[in-house]
Amino acid sequence: MRLISLTAIAAITAFPLFAHADDRIEDALEARHGYMTMLAINMGTLAGMAKGEIEYDEAAASTAGANIEALGNYAVSDLFIEGTANGEVDDSDALPAIWENPDDFVQKFADLGEAAAGAGEAVKGGQANVGPVVQKLGGTCKVCHDDYRKKD
Amino acid sequence: MAEDQARRVRIWDPALRAFHWLLALLVVANWLLGKFGPNIMTLHFWLGYSIVALLAFRLIWGIIGPESARFSSLFHHPRSVTGYLRDMVKREPSHWPGHNPLGALAVIAMLLVLIWQVGTGLIADPEDFVNVGPLANKVGSDIATKADAWHALGADLILIFVLMHIAAILFYRIWKNEDLIRPMLTGWKWVRRR
Predict the structure, then answer these.
(1) Does the keyword Transmembrane apply (chain B) (predicted)?
(2) What CATH code is assigned to B2-191?
(3) Which of A109, A70, A138, A130 is nearest to B127 (CA)?
(4) A145 a known binding residue?
(5) Is A20 labeled as ligand-binding?
(6) B50 partner at 20 to 30 Å CA-CA among A6, A57, A98, B137?
(7) Domains plus CATH for chain A?
(8) What is the per-residue pLDDT across B39-52, written as a single tens digit (0 to 9) for each?
């Protein structure tokens, strides 16, 4: 009886610690997916305009470009904390290679930032200006996905 | 005795030979482009469409083409496959007219994996907004992103099949002293009546 209550007390007091660790992981994962979705929404707008599936609208294009620029400047290290790799937590497509090649991973995000620089301005002035920006940005998506994202 | 004599016969028609070498060239080139090519995969897409055209030709040729190109000559009884396997280790040319029972299975497998590969490629969405398959929006994003993984699996299968194909050619050349490359270039092959 005593053992059970001790165990219960230990479990109850320890619980917040576990919960806390879990929260960090959960938050990073959720934020990461949100970050990628935000990129996807804005990239979707630009890609749609480049293909002519969405009618070109200079203001909307520029907003999407500027959003990607802002996201490209965001330091993502907090979104890729240890313990959030595929296999360590459910619903993660982040390959362990990220944590094995941190410098290269950071560089690939820097490449996105570089490609995104000035995107808000570059997509102004006509539908024909959107395609090159999408290609430059999309190329950096692919390079990073190829090495660091699980295909599923 | 005369019946056992090998004769030189025109087995592979010109269209089939052109198909074979074009397909070999395009598949190898497109595999390399897929793995090591530019991030904007425009050329990979165009070679892929060309492979679709070649496969379409092959499917038609399998129905209306000459005897050795027909699908009917690709499907052998399982017993002839095991029989062929038993004799395969003999150090002598097979002199087989057309696709032998085992080689026919390889042809079927390679055609199927290539159909798989163009199919998954057309609907694949790698979520990079630049290399999205032209039919990806027809299948829904769930299947489209999965198709991207299936396409990568297909690339691995193609590598395995190509290496096995080359190994088989070398096996015939070295072990069985039978050149299978020249007949695919000239159409003429030493065969024995079965």
Answers:
(1) yes
(2) 1.20.950.20
(3) A138
(4) yes
(5) no
(6) B137
(7) 25-148 (1.20.120.10)
(8) 999 999 999 999 99
